[in-house]
Structures are given as structure tokens and as C-alpha cells.
Amino acid sequence: NSNYDLAWLRYGGASVERSAAIQLFEGYLSNIVAAGEGSSPLFRTAVQELTEGLAKLTGKQPAVEPNAAADRFVALGTIGGAGNPLLNDSVEGAEAARLGEEGYIIRKAAREGKDYILIAGGSDKGLLYGVFHFLRLLQTAGQSPDGLNLVEAPKYQLRMVNQWDNMDGSIERGYAGQSIFYQDSKIVSDLTRVREYARLLASVGINGIAINNVNVHEVETKLITPELLPDVARVADVFREYGIRLYLSVNFAAPIELGGTSTADPLEPAVQEWWKQRTADIYRYVADFGGFLVKADSENRPGPFTYGRDHADGANMLAEALEPYGGLVLWRCFVYDCHQDWRDRKTDRARAAYDHFKPLDGRFKDNVILQIKNGPMDFQVREPVSPLFGAMKQTNQMLEFQITQEYTGQQRHVCYLIPQWKEVLEFDTLCEGEGSKVKDIVAGQVHPYKHSGITAVSSIGDDYNWTGHYLAQSNLYGYGRLLWNPELSAEEIAEEWTSMTFGVNQDVASTILDILMESWPTYESYTSPLGVGWMVVPHYHYGPDVDGYEYSKWGTYHFADRDGIGVDRTLATGTGYSHQYVGANAALYDSLESCPDELLLFFHHVPYTYVLKSGKTVIQHIYDTHFAGVEQVEKWIARWDALESKLDPQRFAHVKERLLEQLESAKHWRDVINTYFYRKSGIKDQHNRVIY
Ligand code: BDP
């Protein structure tokens, strides 16, 4: 009877078929032995999560005991905790050392005639992750207690989300209602929903959150002052119980706006001192505060450029203030000229991040991390990978994804983004020769970064189902899972999510899996073609407007004319962006012959009659994909309809309604795009479907 959906933490429920795994583990699930350590809040969270999860999954409240009385049970323990024989006897020292604080072991163990499932954390936090893994295991096929032996540790140090929530309760690029954090310029008093969000995040291993929009307006500027810090501290307390560290987005001009100094010049001692004081205040309220997230000199936000300083000057000033406390500066690289003259093809927005930051390599303090969007533009359905990854050997880097579907259907369309993110992570930058993949760079494994990781713009709001579209929950879930282990496949992640969220019915599972896996290519097929991007309604970014941004200042052009389309980013005749890549990658994109079809128009301007590797002309490709995309959505609707009797009415109806909306929108896209290019090119569709 809560007023929010439990997402993948529903643990069964009346309409859900139980996984066979529950039966296999049944004998162990009535007793939990939580020995010794049980004092830390995180340990308590772990015990509580396991207790509640098992109660729901089995229908019986498990007994929680300090000592092993029953013959079979689940034992919880923390490595290095006060001598727990159940743990110490079955975990070797060397093994424990490899786990790190966030890792855990789940294994079948035996001692003194007793038989148990051991969940052992590298710390209480690792234990909590182990508990969530065990609960997941009980809901997904393929595992039995025999031979159970899992040793897990996360790939990334920082596994974060960024809320783009504003204190008036709105969410920038939010498609799932209002903020769960703020209302009427205040932090909400009832943090129930925030706690529930912390559970969702911790269950997939997220360990950091920035709780306010990177565009910091007047009210949010005050979040770092004693006026609002008591409330920030309340939020931090909730997240701490789930092992999640709190960060704040800050306004670079805060010293001026809060009336401390007349300048925000990072080299001015009074400004430096001002930030040191504010930082000291913050740590008085939140002792484990994570640090500052900063959008500076970007889209009209203040920054060091105003004072003739560069980004290293700006970031280092904040880093110095945070350093005594171990805090970090997450400095965003989304810096470009948003007032450009569209006629000047040399100001290529795609080049901007690399051009701004690469020359600064080596100048940042080691508690600064550059936060780089996955692509050089802005979360389009298809972009190449940002060439900045790996280009700075002496500067910490982290990757920024966007879970909120700003440019991918705004949680009205299904668009499962894990396959897209996997492509980014698997991209080989060649920065240190073959095998210099993005996934390893942002793990600090190519260059030995002190700090690194992945973050993403969150997708949640106060909608009943959190994400606007039930199926969009899979992106939040999958994001966390991918950060824990980027080797998981998109299918595996989708399967896990589906069985936890919708149960193990085969028809349900296979339909949802297919829809999710087909969804990104489908969205791409009926929107902007061949990597060119944009063509969306300005500002809102939903629905087609081919020339919406074509003659504007934002640097997002397609250059379609009567003869052809695409952006020439080659070295010889274009912007030279292709040569921000290393060696063979630069050559791959630079040459028309080798450039992959899906990115062709990102790198090249070609005639409509240019023949793709697929054998089709560009124009016919545009026509065909736009028809195919709509047909695909029609097929999903038929498949979804077939699930009516197997799903709860509420979720069935909700997804159905969204699919119908997606269909309408896909038709709109198809017709606008196809007609536009027919009129521009005058070339007919081979199948005569496109009308003038
Ligand atoms: C774009 C959004 C804009 C954000 C900006 C950013 O349209 O609302 O403020 O990115 O990342 O995607 O700062």
C-alpha cells in the first residue's frame, strides 16, 4: 500500500511466478545468522534487507540469530570483523585481501556439522552488496546451492548518479514527474521516498550521488551554506545507510552570489579562502561529503574564463579546499561555444571538449576528475565515442552517461540503453596501442588514475513507477549492473531485470527481452539517420523538427541541401575532428570508404545517392529505416497484447498506452523525415511509399 512501485525490489508478489531457485535454497532461508559485527548502520541495513527480502520471497519471516543454532542457515559476516568462525574458517586471507572494501563472497560452506550459505563482505558495504546479489540470485534461474561460490568486486571506484533536480521541485530533463528531493525551494521533510531510492541504487551497487542540478540556480547555490546544510545532512544520513556518498553541484560564482566577495577569480586569495570556509562548513555537517560537481563556462554558466583563467585554475582552487577532507572535484568537460555563428563551419562543437581540455593535461590536482560525456555532442541516439577518453594520461577521467532519455524518447518510447553504453565501453581508443578500451580507461587501468569511474544523469522522479515508463526502469537497473561488471551482456542484464520485475513466466520474459533488445536500433531507425543527430524540436528535444536547430547558435547542424547531407569532419576538407582520434581510428572515420554506415553523416557530407556498405543509397536507407521502425513498434504492440492475461492489469495497461504513444510518435517522425528528404532531394522512394 505504498504510493510508489517497488521496481526490481518487489520480491515476488501475488501475480509473479516464483523462480525455481527459491525452492532449491528453501532449506537455508528460515534462519539468518548475523554474528558479531552487527553494530554499524550498514551492517544493520544488510541484515534488514535480507530479512525483508526473504520474508517476501518465501512468505515466512526468517529468524535472525547471533549464533548458529539451526542446521542450515544464511550466515552474514564482514571480513576483518570481530572473529566470526563461520566466516574465518571458509575465507582465506589472500582471497579476502583481493576483495577490497566493496567486494564480497557468496559460497556454500560447512562447519561443525552445519551447512550454510555464507555472505561475506570486504566491509559492511560489501556485505550489503552481497545480500542484494543473493536476493537477486534467488529470483533468477540457473543457480543451486551446490557448488555455489561467487567472488565479486566492482570494476569502478566511483559508481555515481547525478540528479538534475531543482529546488522548486522541477527536474531538468526529467520525464517521471517532480523531484523526490525538493519541493517549494526546500528539501522535503519526509525522506521515505529518498530512502527507497537509496535502496534501489544500493541494490545495483551505486555508491555516490550528486543531489542537485549541474545548472545551479539562485536557491541551490545556498545548499553549501549553514542555512541549508542541516537538510543536506539529513539526506546524506539516509544515503549513508546504503553506502552512498553525497555530492553537491556548485555554482562557480557562488562567492559573488552569496555575497562573500566581489569576484570569483580562482587565483584571488579571498575567493580561495571563501571556498575553504564553505568547505569546512560542509564537512561539519556531512563528515563524509563526497565533493563538488561543476558545470563551468558551459551553456552560460559562470566559470574561470570570465577572469582570463582556465579550467585547471578553476578546478584546482576547489580541489585545494576539498583536499584536507579527501573530497573530490568532478569537473565537467561539456564545454563548448553555444553562441556560435552557424555559418562558420570551423567552430565544430564536436571538437570542443578535446580542444579545451587536452592541452591542460598534467595541470589538475589529483583530487580532480574530469567528467566526460560519452560522446562529443550531447547524448544523441548515435554518436562516436568522445576522443577525449585516454587522451589525457596525467588527468583523472570519468565517463558520464545519460539514463534520463532526453534524446531517446523521454521515457515515452522504449529505449533500452545498455547496448549503446556497452559499445562506448568497448570502444578501443588505441591511446596506448591496441587494447586501450574506454571501459579500462575510466577504471584507471590504462593510465594509473588515482580516481576514476562512471556517472550518469538519473531518470527518476516522483511518478508512481519512478521512471515514467515501466520498461525504462531497466535502464536504471542496468546502469548499476554494468558499472559493477561491464562484462555482463545487455541480454543478461535485461533478463535479470525482467525476472525480478515481472517474474519468470517464459512468454513475459522473452517478449520483454526482445522488445528491450530491439528498442535502441528501432528508435534510431525512425529518428535522425546515420549518426547525424538532432532534428528534434528545439529545447524540448521530443519529436521531429528537421531544421529546428539548423540555423541556430548551438552548433548542431546536418547541412542538408538539395544534393546531400552530413557534416564534413575530415581533416582535408572538414573540421578536422576525425583527427582527434588516435591512429587507425582517425583513419577509419576520416575515410569515406571505411567510415561505418551508422556514423557516416557524423563524419562526412555525401550526396543522397551515395551507396552505403549495406548496398543502399543514403536516401533509400532513410526511407526504408523509417518505415521499418514504425513496423517494429507495431509488432511490439501485438506481442504485448498477447501478454494481457499474464501481467497485472496496471502494468499491462501502462506499457500498452506508452507503446501506442510511441507508435504515433514514430509515424510522425517517419512522415516528417521522409517527406523532408523527398522534397529536398527530389528522389523518389523505390517503393513509392513516400508522399510529397
Ligand atoms: C543537455 C541538456 C541540458 C543540460 C546539459 C548539460 O539539454 O539541459 O543542462 O546537457 O549536460 O543535454 O549540462
From the structure above, extract its key features:
six-stranded mixed β-sheet; carbohydrate metabolism; 18 strands; binds beta-D-glucopyranuronic acid; alpha/beta; 692 residues; 21 helices; eight-stranded parallel barrel; hydrolase; A-glucoronidase_C_sf
Task: Describe this entry's structure for a reader.
With 692 residues, this protein is an alpha/beta fold. The chain has 21 helices and 18 strands. The chain has helices at 20-25, 41-58, 85-88, 93-99, 124-137, 192-203, 218-221, 229-240, 254-257, 269-285, 311-322, 352-357, 418-426, 438-441, 473-484, 490-502, 506-526, 583-590, 600-603, 618-641, 649-681; strands at residues 31-34, 63-65, 72-78, 104-111, 114-121, 149-152, 158-162, 182-183, 186-187, 208-210, 245-250, 291-294, 328-332, 368-373, 397-402, 453-457, 564-565, 606-607. The strands form four sheets. Strands 7-10-11-12-13-14-15-16 form an eight-stranded parallel β-barrel. β4 (104-111) and β5 (114-121) form a beta hairpin. α16 (490-502) crosses α17 (506-526). It is globular. It starts with 19 loop residues before the first helix and ends in an 11-residue tail after the last helix. Bound molecules: beta-D-glucopyranuronic acid. Beta-D-glucopyranuronic acid (BDP) binds at residues 172-173, 214-215, 295, 299, 334, 378-379, 406.
